[in-house]
TrEMBL record:
Keyword presence, Cell inner membrane: no
Catalytic activity field: Releases a C-terminal residue, which may be hydrophobic or positively charged
Highest classification ranks of the organism: Bacteria, Bacillati, Actinomycetota, Actinomycetes, Propionibacteriales
Whole-protein coverage range: 143 to 464 of 566
EC code(s) of this entry: 3.4.17.18
GO biological process, one term: proteolysis
GO cellular component terms, A-Z: extracellular space
Domain of life (superkingdom): Bacteria
Region described as Disordered: 165-187
Designated name of the protein: Zinc carboxypeptidase
Protein species of origin: Kribbella albertanoniae
Positions of the catalytic residues: E277 (proton donor/acceptor)
Needed cofactors: Zn(2+)
Top-level enzyme category: hydrolase
Any GO molecular function: metallocarboxypeptidase activity
Length: 322
C-alpha cells in the first residue's frame, strides 16, 4: 500500500488538495509553495517544502524532486507526491527520515506541467506530452489546449532549459514532440523551476519521467565532455540504481538531447541532477505504482523509495558518495 493509500491515478485536483491537506496536517514541517508563474492556461504550479521547522529552514541544503514535465507520464507525479507522504508520516519513526528532515529540506513539485497533465489525465488526450503553448503567438484560454490540434501543440518542457539549448536532440519544428521553443526558458514551466532552484541550495535533484528503468546523469549529448564531477556523479547514480535495479548511465547513452532539466541545473549550480525513467510504459495500470515505489521481486523493500532516500541523504554530505 502506498503511503497515501491511493489506488488510482490522481487528477490535477487531487494533487492540489493532497498538498494542501499535508500542509494543514503537518504545519511545522510542510509548507505549500506557489511557484513564480502561472501556466499558460492560468493554473498555479504548486510544491511542498518539507523539513523540521520548515518556516525557518532557509539555510538547509535541498533535495528537489519533480514529476510530470511530460503530461502522459503519470507515475512520475505519483512517485513524487508519495515521497512527501512517506517523509511526513515516518518522521520520528524511521531514523533516516528524521535525519533527512532535521538536516536538509526536501522540495517536491509533482506536477510541473499542469495544463498538459490535465489534458492527458482528465480530458482524454492521453498521449499529450508537451505544454499548451500555441505557437502563433496567442495565449490559450482555459481548455483551449483540448481543441483539435492539441496533440502537436506546445513546447517540450524538457528541451526548453538553457543547458546546451540550441544543440542536437531537440527540434525547431513547432509540431515536433521535442520542440525546444523559440528561446531557452521561453516557457513558464521551465522558468518556474529555474527560479525555484535559484532561490535554494539545491544540491541534488531528481526529475521523474517514464519510461525505461534508467537512472540518467549528464551530459545529455554525446559530443559534450564528461562533467567535472563524473566520479562522484556516477557513484551516486550507481548507488541509487542498486536500489531500484535500473541501469545507471550517462543520458546521451539513451539518445542525444539538449535543453533538459539537469543539463541546465548541473552546469548552472553544480548541484547533481538526475533523470529517473520509470517502468516499461508511459502510464501502465496503477497497480504498478506501489511496485515502483517500494520495489518488487529482487528489489522488494528497496525500489525508488530507497533511491530517493539516498538522494536526500546526499544533500547532507555530498562527499560521502565519492
Ligand atoms: O526525451 C526525454 O525528455 C526523456 N525521455 S521521455 O521518454 N521521458 O521523454 C529522456 C531525456 C534523457 N536525456 C537524454 N536522453 N539525453
Ligand atoms: Zn518524460
Amino acid at each position: 500500500t502506498l503511503p497515501s493509500g491511493r489506488t488510482a491515478y490522481r487528477q490535477l485536483a487531487d494533487f492540489t488538495s493532497n498538498m494542501a491537506s499535508l500542509a494543514q496536517q503537518y504545519p511545522t514541517k510542510a509548507k505549500l509553495i506557489n511557484l513564480k508563474e502561472k501556466s499558460l492556461e492560468g493554473r498555479t504550479v504548486q510544491g511542498l517544502e518539507i523539513s523540521h521547522n520548515v518556516a525557518t529552514s532557509s539555510g538547509k541544503p535541498v533535495f528537489l524532486m519533480m514529476g510530470l514535465h511530460h503530461a502522459r507520464e503519470w507515475p512520475s507525479g505519483e512517485l513524487t507526491i508519495e515521497f512527501a507522504y512517506d517523509l511526513l508520516q515516518n518522521d520520528g519513526v524511521d531514523t533516516r527520515i528524521t535525519n533527512i528532515l532535521e538536516k536538509s529540506k526536501v522540495i517536491i513539485v509533482p506536477v510541473v506541467n499542469p495544463d498538459g497533465f490535465n489534458l492527458s489525465r482528465t480530458l482524454g488526450y492521453e498521449m499529450k506530452r508537451k505544454n499548451c503553448r500555441i505557437t502563433n503567438g496567442q495565449l490559450p484560454t482555459a481548455g483551449q489546449c483540448a481543441q483539435s490540434t492539441n496533440q502537436s501543440r506546445g513546447v517540450d518542457p524538457n528541451r526548453n532549459y538553457s543547458g546546451f539549448w540550441g544543440g542536437p536532440g531537440a527540434s525547431t519544428s513547432t509540431t515536433s514532440e521535442t520542440y525546444r521553443g523559440p528561446s531557452a526558458f521561453s516557457e513558464p514551466e521551465t522558468r518556474n523551476i529555474q527560479s525555484l532552484v535559484s532561490a535554494h541550495q539545491v544540491t541534488t535533484l531528481i526529475t521523474n519521467h517514464t519510461y525505461s528503468n534508467l537512472v540518467l546523469r549528464p551530459p545529455g549529448y554525446a559530443a559534450a565532455a564528461n562533467t567535472p564531477d563524473e566520479t562522484m556523479y556516477k557513484a551516486l547514480g550507481d548507488q541509487m540504481a542498486a536500489q531500484n535495479a535500473y541501469t545507471s548511465q550517462k543520458s546521451y547513452q539513451l539518445y542525444d538531447t539538449t535543453g533538459t532539466t539537469e543539463d541546465w541545473s548541473y552546469y548552472a549550480t553544480g548541484g547533481l541532477g538526475f533523470t529517473f525513467e520509470h517502468g516499461s510504459s508511459f502510464h501502465p495500470a496503477f497497480s504498478n505504482v506501489p511496485n515502483y515505489y517500494f520495489g518488487s521481486g529482487s528489489t522488494a523493500g528497496k525500489g525508488n523509495r530507497a533511491a530517493y532516500l539516498l538522494a536526500a541523504e546526499s544533500t547532507i554530505n555530498p562527499a560521502r558518495h565519492s
